[in-house]
């Protein structure tokens, strides 16, 4: 056994790093495992910009000082809270700076198994170590949840991949690439492919693309601000509720929560991306994938479209089809432990402290969007999760999971 701590955090993305910073300030003994900002460093394309505004892209620090604005000021990088898209490389550098400043003891290794023994957990690590912890917080993000359409699942990786497989889309220069999807990831990947010299076609089942509007000026007249408030996830009262009241969201009926978590703030392109997509390359609307086959020249895709059956030949198809939370895909949670975690639509059911039905086992981040709402799918939700879980853990040893419905 390499050591024993009160709390082990699995994951070092925005949620895990924020929580570790808060636990340090609260002097709660803990250890954190994971590769810092791994999703952002390996599963997003170079040249990407964040969709969230600057002010909504902060990791949560207890002193409120380790913001993206403070990082950019210290490093001489351009920053505005509204209206200036944040480049991916700036956000990654910010996350790594946050980690070095506030979470220097992060152990950059993966957790391969979590088992429960008596009143504690034992975590096995990829580097061969083992750690004992009274409580465990899983902050493993979405990388285990990439969603691939069934019809593409058996194609070889040479001709078909998920959008998360491409940190550098320039590798496709000169190739015919079909991108499936209509969210920010699909549209931005397509724009980057086009700008890198690929022959790109976007295909979506839906009859139109959706675009987010420009951010509203913060100094607009009071009446306009009351009619349409601006919040972390965007503008409007519904969005304000999702952004600022995850605790109230948890009180909605389960079926409403599942539906809103999956559909609210659904697929749409950022306003600044629009001119890089429209009239730049073909976008086939109302086309449903019906079949796919690899052949000597790449891949043949069949669709049902408005004009009947259609076929597209390409060198590669990229499924920008997002992520779907599914506890069974977190293979590091042992087979003996997992059945004890109650789920709703594949996600762990958690109480108001983010504790699952297994006492001492917590989940934060996108995995618990059906509990705390769409804000969990964004960096902005890290503040609520980190503060709430820190308060619960500071309250003392294991509690039974009250209110896990
Ligand atoms: C293309 C794309 C663009 C996005 N753009 C935005 C945006 O502009 N704004 C926004 O707010 N959100 C955006 N998101 C959503 C983003 O994923 C979340 O906001 C955020 O990353 C969630 O943070 P997290 O800490 O929960 O997870 P992640 O950032 O996914 O981090 C997960 C961490 O868990 C670790 N981990 C996984 N398995 C293990 C294991 N077995 N052992 C140890 N560690 C493990 C990883 O190494 C990593 O450190 C985007 C997502 C994608 C895919």
Question: How are the SSEs ordered, and which strands pair?
Answer:
Elements: E1 3-10, H1 14-25, E2 30-33, H2 38-42, H3 68-75, H4 88-102, E3 111-117, E4 120-125, E5 130-138, E6 160-162, E7 176-180, H5 184-195, E8 199-203, H6 222-227, E9 230-231, E10 234-235, H7 237-244, H8 246-249, H9 254-263, E11 283-284, E12 288-295, E13 298-305, E14 308-314, E15 316-319, E16 343-344, E17 347-348, E18 361-363, H10 369-372, H11 382-394
Parallel strand pairs: 1-2, 1-5, 5-18, 6-15, 7-8, 7-15, 8-11
Antiparallel strand pairs: 3-4, 4-5, 9-10, 12-13, 13-14, 16-17
The structure holds flavin-adenine dinucleotide.
Description:
It is a single chain. By secondary structure, the protein is of the alpha/beta class. 24% of the residues lie in helices and 21% in strands. The chain is built from eleven helices and 18 strands. It has helices at residues 14-25, 38-42, 68-75, 88-102, 184-195, 222-227, 237-244, 246-249, 254-263, 369-372, 382-394, and strands spanning 3-10, 30-33, 111-117, 120-125, 130-138, 160-162, 176-180, 199-203, 230-231, 234-235, 283-284, 288-295, 298-305, 308-314, 316-319, 343-344, 347-348, 361-363. The strands form five sheets. Strands 1, 2, 3, 4, 5 and 18 form a six-stranded mixed β-sheet that branches. A five-stranded parallel β-sheet has the order 6-15-7-8-11, covered by helices on one side. Strands 12-13-14 form a three-stranded antiparallel β-sheet, with no helix packed on it. β7 (176-180), α5 and β8 (199-203) form a beta-alpha-beta unit. The longest helix has 15 residues, at 88-102. It is globular, with a radius of gyration of 22 Å. Residues 10-16, 33-35, 38-39, 44, 50-52, 57, 110-111, 139-143, 185, 332, 365-366, 377-380 line the site of flavin-adenine dinucleotide (FAD).
């Amino acid at each position: 056994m390499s050591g024993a701590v009160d709390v082990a955090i699995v994951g070092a993305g925005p949620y895990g790093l924020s929580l570790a910073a808060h636990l340090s300030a609260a002097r709660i003994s803990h250890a954190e495992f994971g590769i810092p900002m791994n999703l952002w460093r390996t599963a997003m394309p170079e040249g990407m910009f964040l969709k969230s505004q600057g002010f909504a892209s902060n990791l949560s620090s207890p002193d409120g000082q380790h913001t993206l604005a403070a990082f950019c000021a210290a490093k001489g990088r351009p920053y505005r809270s509204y209206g200036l898209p944040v480049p991916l490389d700036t956000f990654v550098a910010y996350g790594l700076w946050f980690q070095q400043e506030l979470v220097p003891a992060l152990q950059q290794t993966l957790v391969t198994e979590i088992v429960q023994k008596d009143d504690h957990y034992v975590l096995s690590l990829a580097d061969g170590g083992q750690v004992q912890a009274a409580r465990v917080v899983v902050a493993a993000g979405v990388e285990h949840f990439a969603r691939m359409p069934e019809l593409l699942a058996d194609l070889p990786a040479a001709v078909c991949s998920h959008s998360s497989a491409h940190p550098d889309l320039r590798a496709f220069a000169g190739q015919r690439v079909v991108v499936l999807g209509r969210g920010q990831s699909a549209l931005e990947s397509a724009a980057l492919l086009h700008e890198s010299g690929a022959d790109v076609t976007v295909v979506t089942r839906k009859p139109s693309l959706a675009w987010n509007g420009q951010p509203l000026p913060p100094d607009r007249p009071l009446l306009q601000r009351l009619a349409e408030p601006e919040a972390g996830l965007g503008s409007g009262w519904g969005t304000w509720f999702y952004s600022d009241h995850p605790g109230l969201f948890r009180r909605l009926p389960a079926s409403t929560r599942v539906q809103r978590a999956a559909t609210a703030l659904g697929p749409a392109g950022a306003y600044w991306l629009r001119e890089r997509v429209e009239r730049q390359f073909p976008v086939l609307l109302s086309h449903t994938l019906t079949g796919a086959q690899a052949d000597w020249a790449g891949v043949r895709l069949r669709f049902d479209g408005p004009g009947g059956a259609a076929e597209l030949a390409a060198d590669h198809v990229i499924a920008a089809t997002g992520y779907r939370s599914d506890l069974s895909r977190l293979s590091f949670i042992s087979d003996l432990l997992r059945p004890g975690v109650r789920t709703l639509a594949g996600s762990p059911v958690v109480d108001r402290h983010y504790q699952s039905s297994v006492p001492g086992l917590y989940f934060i981040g996108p995995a618990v969007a059906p509990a705390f709402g769409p804000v969990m799918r964004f960096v902005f939700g890290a503040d609520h999760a980190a503060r709430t879980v820190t308060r619960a853990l500071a309250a003392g040893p294991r509690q039974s999971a009250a209110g896990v419905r």
